[in-house]
Amino acid sequence: MSVVSADIQIARETPRRAGHPTLDAALHWYKQGIVPVPCSLTTKRPIIEWKEWQYELPDMHRVMRWFITNQVNIGLLCGGIGKLCVLDFDSRIQYINWRDDTMLLSSALWGQIAENGYKVITGRGVHVYIKTKFAQPSYRCDKYKADVKGEGGIAIAPPSVHPSGAMYTPLNDGDIYVVACQQELLDAVPPVSSMSHRGRHAGIWDDIESMAACYNGPYVDVRSALPIVDFVQDIGGERPIKYGRDKRFGLTRCIYPGHKDSHASMRIDTVRNTLNCSSTSCPLHSDSYWLNVVDVYKLICDMDEYDAYMELRQYVLFNKSKGRLG
Ligand SMILES: [Zn+2]
């Protein structure tokens, strides 16, 4: 056997990419406070004891030792210190359904996540990366056939190779957006809700119950439960003028405190329950998305998303108890 053919033999057995892409990727995540762990090429499972690294960042040399070989996949620990959360859609169709729904109906933040958030093509589906400000248990979303990987979850990341041979490939070089309010995550990717799933997803059900225990009170989708036209009237004091087919839209003076609006610059969409101020210098103006009631309240009161959500939720619960809201 000649030396040349022996070299080819080795090259075939160990397909190498230029440099150390897996190590580079591992360090990229590590520097963002997200722990990368080496996983098997064939089973996707971690090949180290990883639980101790959920709440403690390993030192960099250890990470380099884990990934100095290219013969491992890279798994990112979700939840824990990095608070990474990955929406793992089983199929591209389900991902597209979710994206279209989210861009149409959800908050400005989720519209951004759906459009510009960092995403990865997997074997058959898509991963959408976010970070949370709260500890998020993992759960199953039946509506979009997705696993939401939070505490204790591991997301296989590029440039890993799926056991089928497919590469995990970034769909874009988008940002990882931070979600401050847990309820917003649950609205965007609703958890399984039927008891009939107890058998099929026994382990996940426990997580749902522990997640439910994190809330203080019943589930309320503030964005749809509170008609934005009533909210604007409450704050602005005047009834918006209806226009458009089926009187879908409303027009009124802007309710942002700093906007001295002599014209009626604020447009309301009563179907999507969103609004937009046409004055480009106004904080309630957006070129890309109309704002929902949580977005608006957050900006008007200069509070964070979570507080705005919780305050509006109280407002909705109070008004419902008085029979004021449908
Ligand atoms: Zn305005």
Structural notes for this entry:
Strands 3, 4, 5, 6, 7, 9 and 10 form a seven-stranded mixed β-sheet that branches. Strands 11-12-13-14 form a four-stranded antiparallel β-sheet, with no helix packed on it. Strands 1-2-8 form a three-stranded antiparallel β-sheet. The longest helix is centred in the last third of the chain and has 17 residues, at 305-321. It has helices at 3-13, 21-31, 60-67, 92-105, 108-116, 182-188, 197-200, 202-212, 222-225, 228-236, 293-301, 305-321; strands spanning 36-39, 73-77, 84-89, 119-121, 126-132, 139-141, 146-149, 154-157, 169-170, 177-179, 241-243, 249-252, 266-269, 274-277. With 326 residues, the protein is α+β, with helices and mostly antiparallel strands. The chain is elongated and about 65 Å long. Helix 2 packs antiparallel against helix 3, helix 4 (92-105) runs antiparallel to helix 5 and helix 11 (293-301) packs across helix 12 (305-321). The structure holds zinc ion.
Secondary structure tally, helices:
12
How many structural units, i.e. domains? 2
* Uncertain regions spanning at least 5 consecutive residues: 1-17, 193-218
- What is the overall shape? elongated
Task: Say how many strands there are.
Answer: 14
**What gap, in angstroms, lies between the N and C termini?**
82 Å
Helix content: 25-40%
> What is the mean predicted local confidence, pLDDT?
82
Rg is: 24 Å
Largest sheet: 7 strands, mixed
The run of helices and strands is HHEHEEHHEEEEEEEHHHHHEEEEHH
Task: Specify the oligomeric state.
Answer: single chain
Strand proportion: 15-25%
Q: List each distinct ligand once.
A: zinc ion
